């Protein structure tokens, strides 16, 4: 072979092997990482595993996180990553892996993020450091869960519209996903969940005299949401962001004070007391959170005007279905009517405002069991029609929903579905008897976990009321379900028709079931009716009682029913730096409560030899102003007269406390008092003040016990240095709520 030929072959070999590394390994392409916002929840992304980049300062947004290690999919991805230590507050890359839902998510405090507890959720996720393993490439764009409802028919292909919140790739056709928009968003989405046995019990189409089989499922668009909601068309794009949960889902109580800090809901369904372990670090509240100084900026919930506008556009009017659609109608106006009967489009009318003196959200639990019979079921419907007409339903007054229970509960219509008494009348008349047993306990659990949510029209600014109609007695136990509902702030009324007589009481599953269920056992929350034919006589008394909001005492929770006085040692032994640590501890405790003039109020006294009222109850009536006021307190310096300070707090604060408030005093001191503390402490105890004492360093144990309410183990705490105060934030809140929830109900 000639030299020229060898040269040609060598050049050809070089050309064929160019662009490849030895052993055939190509250069690894650079991973493109999509950026997300702090409020992005894992459940909004329909990928099972993906990588994202979080921005800086997500911790200050206080976006909710549920769980520890494994998080519920309604959690903020970025704050979950900070909580887990995967990234810092400076942001960074995070790998997210989806997994099955869990029965319980335990909250904790880590890396400055407080995660909350949640009883259960349909989907979970975990986070890890954003460094893909060798050979693993994640999607460079995110696919989002549909943000608009759609019609899905069994056995037919599904063309799901995708969210236009941010540019994403088109999602492939998939099985019904269990990840749906959480119930607190203003953009309503019907969750489509997978199960071995499909069911359509919640939004069941009812035909007169016909019971639809559960296996022939049609998941329909809610009557209140068109394929492109009118609300989204009139609302600026920036205002159509997903909002966080209103309530603190970690506490098992519902409240409605300041919408920026409302619950849960929750949460929503998620309202359990905070897991409290003194051993869990809590860096807690940071002053930078108040940099805006604007409480309205922290309020994620639409105001009344937006709610009414939303309801006006598609809350109560049922657009015509596609098969009856005029030729000029666009896809944005398609939908189904509420009960499947009225298939013609209706022209919107001006909404009823309702009775403003009766602003309550009411769920009626109607008995659909077979024992009631068709005739008495009709009497029950007539009763509910009469109630709906007398109560004057409207967006500024009462809103009304109905759940029918038998073996299982089913929502006939939610709170937001009808906004006038006129529209309720035909809707109630069309309800078809469900049949089955009288499982009231299961129905109460259902309304607590699912019915009173933002997605179903719970307004947050109105008391929640559940009126249970029962023929005879329940066929399951109600005590535990009722307790949890009451702790969620639900006022339970019982209307028992033809209750058990002496001979029948042996057949009752749970004795004294009414007293175990109602909000209070003083007779106000129970209406025994001797005969079905006398039921309509109870209309006026029932309406009067549910509208008496001053007596709806179960609306009060451990977070919104207190006057809390902090009595702070400002003596010379504390020092400026430690005093700031004490103020941060006070802020950490305070931020867990619902702050307003009608909810929890906070006052602070600083003392040395003398006493100084820093601010009184009601002086700062929203959380932002209150936390800023705490920040501005100046260190005093001097001696230590704790007894005189307790007396001063009683005179200046608790003497002006409201009669319906629980009076709580938290004394923080670092040394022995120069005066007697026993007599002042005993005096405030006799006035009904619940006293907590927190001693630091050189505080005297005997004085702490004198100050604290019995038992001492629940009300008196000691730390060896100021930096350990944070350990008792959750413990104190937990004890306050436990004490509230265990109080007598008579």
Automatic annotation (TrEMBL):
Entries under Pfam families matching the protein: LCCL, VWA
Keyword Membrane set for record: no
Role this protein plays: Promotes matrix assembly and cell adhesiveness. Plays a role in spinal cord formation by regulating the proliferation and differentiation of neural stem cells.
The protein's name in its UniProt record: Vitrin
Assembly: Binds dermatan sulfate and chondroitin sulfate.
Residue ranges with Polar residues bias: 215-237
Location of the LCCL domain: 32-125
Biased composition annotated in UniProt, kind: Basic and acidic residues: 204-214
Entries under InterPro entries matching the protein: ECM_Assembly_Org, LCCL, LCCL_sf, VWF_A, vWFA_dom_sf
SMART domains found in the cross-reference section: LCCL (SM00603), VWA (SM00327)
Compositionally biased spans, kind Low complexity: 169-196
Residues annotated as domain VWFA: 361-546, 563-732
Record's keyword terms, sorted: Disulfide bond, Extracellular matrix, Glycoprotein, Neurogenesis, Repeat, Secreted, Signal
Gene Ontology terms describing biological process: extracellular matrix organization; nervous system development; positive regulation of cell-substrate adhesion
Region listing for Disordered, in residue ranges: 148-297
Top-rank taxon, per record: Eukaryota
Residues of the signal peptide: 1-20
Cellular compartments annotated: Secreted, Extracellular space, Extracellular matrix
